Design the sequence.
């Protein structure tokens, strides 16, 4: 069984690509849990594809799939 990697939040905060400033910023486990509970992906997934897509705040899986297919 693989061991989960411990997050260093201070290091991750500097690298976080999300432009939305919330209480979960750089707390990846909390952020991912929050978005998945809403059937969404976190902003960092979108930022890897397009900064403009991330800034749209559309976190929908379907939107993400369209972005991936168009790249």
Sequence:
């Amino acid at each position: 069984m693989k061991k989960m990697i411990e997050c260093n939040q201070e290091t991750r905060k500097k690298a976080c690509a999300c432009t939305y400033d919330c209480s979960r910023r750089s707390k990846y486990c909390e952020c991912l849990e929050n978005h998945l509970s809403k059937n969404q992906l976190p902003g960092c997934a979108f930022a890897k594809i397009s900064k403009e897509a991330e800034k749209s705040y559309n976190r929908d899986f379907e939107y993400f799939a369209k972005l991936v297919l168009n790249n």
Summary: The chain has five helices and no strands. The CA atoms of residues 36 and 42 lie 8 Å apart. The mean pLDDT is 83.
